[in-house]
Amino acid sequence: MMKRTIAILATSLFLTTAPAQTFLDHLQNDDKSSGQVSVKQSEDINKLVNGSGKSKEQDTKQEATRQEERSRQESRSESRQRDYERNVSTAEDEARDKARRERERKAREAARAKKMQEFEENVDASSSRKKLMSNSKRAKGYRIQVFAGGNTRLDRAKAQEMGAKVKTKFPGHPVYVHFYSPRWCCRFGNFRNQEAATKLLKQVKKEGFKNACVIKTAITVNR
């Protein structure tokens, strides 16, 4: 009985201290009594049968590395997208600024041309008045008023526009566009008596100047 117990303990100790063997190592044991087994297989099959040999900690590190790489790629992609959008926005802003500057340039040129035209018209009018004054004199009489507005630039422009129309319809009468405080007015003609002005007034209204009226004022007559 004692010998049997010692044998069991020795066997257990041998099994405990023996190096671990894989499934293939076990198959390839050189047992002279039963012959020799030799097995060859791929690395993938070896991993499937005996395990990969990698610890869970290594798998976790590799997964973290892959995740970090994916994050970097996504970050680079988002950065490129932001750069593209920023470049597009900058190009659009530059195009809008260029268009705005072009509009402002054209507006300045139009304003300068208008001022030059007004200056030339004033010079011509002044020259005409000087020539007229040398051969004429002031007297009491009547004129036909076709426009009376306010004191703004728009009213002045309307008075000038109305004067141009009167010159076209009644070329034989002088036209006067002046600021008679507190408004811009357009009047024409030099009539010594009211009857002559009233007679022409009927024709003026037929031509479309519905608000025309006869005004008693100083007129210019030849000496």
Largest sheet: 4 strands, antiparallel
Helix content: 55-70%
Q: Give the helices and strands as they follow along the chain.
A: HHHHEHEEHE
Strand order of the largest sheet: 2-3-1-4
Task: Kindly report the average pLDDT value.
Answer: 78
Shape: rod-shaped
Q: How would you classify the helix and strand content by structural class?
A: alpha+beta
Proportion of residues in extended strands = 15-25%
Query: How many separate helices?
Result: 6
Using only C-alpha atoms, the radius of gyration works out to 56 Å
The rounded distance between the terminal residues' Cα atoms is 169 Å
Number of strands: 4
Q: List the uncertain runs.
A: 14-20
Topology, element by element:
Elements (H helix, E strand, L loop, with lengths): L1 H16 L5 H5 L15 H8 L5 H79 L1 E13 L4 H17 L5 E6 L2 E9 L2 H13 L6 E10 L1
Antiparallel strand pairs: 1-3, 1-4, 2-3
Describe what you observe in this structure.
The protein is of the alpha+beta class. The chain has 6 helices and 4 strands; from the N terminus they run ααααβαββαβ. The chain has helices at 2-17, 23-27, 43-50, 56-134, 153-169, 194-206; strands at residues 136-148, 175-180, 183-191, 213-222. A hairpin with a 2-residue loop joins strand 2 (175-180) and strand 3. The protein is rod-shaped. Residues 14-20 have low confidence and may be disordered.
